[in-house]
Amino acid sequence: MPEWFEEWFGEEYLALYPHRDEEDAARLVALLGRLIGWGAGWRVLDICCGPGRHAQALDAAGLAVTGLDLSATLLRKARQVTAAPLVRADVRALPIREGSMDAGLNLFTSFGYFDTDEEHAATLAGMVGTVRRGGWFVLDFLNADMVAARIAEGAGSFERGEGGTRLRRYRTAGGRHVVKEIVLADGRRFQERVRLFAAAELAAMLSGAGATVRFHFGDYEGGPARADAPRVLLVAEVA
Q1: Residues 143-146: contacts with CB within 8 Å, 24+ apart?
Q2: What is the pLDDT of residue 21?
Q3: pLDDT tens digits, one per residue of 203-231
Q4: Which residues are CB-neighbours of 29 under 8 A, at least 6 positions away?
Q5: Dihedral of alpha carbons 74, 104, 107, 111, sign
Q6: Closest CA to 123 of 3, 1, 25, 225
Q7: Averaged pLDDT, 54-81
Q8: pLDDT > 90: what percent of the chain?
Q9: In angstroms, rounded to a whole number, what is the distance separating the alpha carbons of residues 226 and 169?
Q10: Mean pLDDT across the chain, nearest whole number?
Q11: Is 111 strand, coil or helix?
Q12: Is the pLDDT at 199 greater than 70, yes or no?
C-alpha cells in the first residue's frame, strides 16, 4: 500500500497549492548565505526540492545546486524554473556520494513523514551524511509548539476550502502527529501526516547524525526562536 506522501505530491497537490512564495525562498537563501558564507560553486543538495523555488533561488545565487525529490510531477515543475540537475529518489535511500556536498538543505517541513522515530533518525543521518566535514546542513520544520497551541487533538468537522474541496486539521491522540485531510470536489481523499518534533528533538537527532546546531531561528528573516514563531530553522555544522 502506498504511503501518503507517495500519492499526494502530484497534480492534485499543485492544483490545491498553486502559489508558493518565491520571495520567502529568496529571503531564506539570503539569510543562509550571510550565516554560512557560501560562495559561487558551492555544491548544495536541495533535498525534497518540490517544484523548485528554493533550487531556483540557490541557482540564482551562483551555487551548484542539485535538486532531489520523490515526486516526478514536482520535478517536472521544478524543471520549468531551474536548470540545476534534478534527481528522483526516496530520501531514505539517497543516491548521493557520502561527503560530496558542501551543504544540504531540507526545507519547508519535508520531514516527519514516516512511521517510526528510528526511521526519521536514520533518514536524517543519511541526509547529513551527504555533506563534507566542516559543511552545513539546514533543517526547516514547522514549529510544533505553535501547532499544539492552535490545533486541537481529535478529528473535528470538515471546513470548506477552495474549488469545492473540504479540509480538516487535527492532532492525533497524544499530540504526536498533525494531520490534514483533504477531500477533493470529485470525492477523492488525501492526507498529510507529519510527526510533531520539538526543536530540541530535532537538534538531538542532528547531533546524533554528527551535526551541531550553530543557529536556531523562528522565521526566514532570522527572527528569534519563540513558542509562537512560525518555523523551526536549524543551521548545523557537520563534524
Answers
A1: 143/199, 143/218, 143/227, 143/228, 143/229, 143/230, 143/231, 143/232, 144/196, 144/197, 144/198, 144/199, 144/232, 145/198, 145/227, 145/228, 146/227, 146/228, 146/229, 146/230
A2: 81
A3: 999 999 999 999 999 999 999 999 999 99
A4: 54, 57, 58, 61
A5: positive
A6: 3
A7: 96
A8: 88
A9: 23
A10: 95
A11: coil
A12: yes
Whether residue 19 has pLDDT greater than 70:
no
Q: How many CA atoms lie within 13 A of 212 on its CB side?
A: 4
Q: What angle do CA 212, 32, 48 make, to 5 degrees?
A: 80
| Chain position carrying cell 544540504 | 104
List Cβ neighbours of 36 (8 Å cut-off, separation of 6 or more).
103, 136, 235
Nearest to 10 by CA among 73, 63, 69: 73
Q: What is the DSSP string of 32-93?
A: HHHHH---TT-EEEEET-TTSHHHHHHHHTT-EEEEEES-HHHHHHHHTT--S-EEE--GGG
Which strands, in side-by-side order, build the sheet including 159-160? 159-160, 166-171, 177-183, 189-195
Instruction: Find the helix or strand (DSSP H, E) in which 190 lies.
Output: strand 189-195
C-alpha cell of 11? 497534480
> Does the pLDDT at position 147 exceed 90?
yes
What local confidence, expressed as pLDDT, does residue 64 receive? 98
Residue 14, amino acid: L
With cell 469545492, the residue in question is 164
Place of cell 530540541: 200
**Ranges 20-29, 139-148, 178-187: which has the least confidence:** 20-29
Amino acid at 40: A
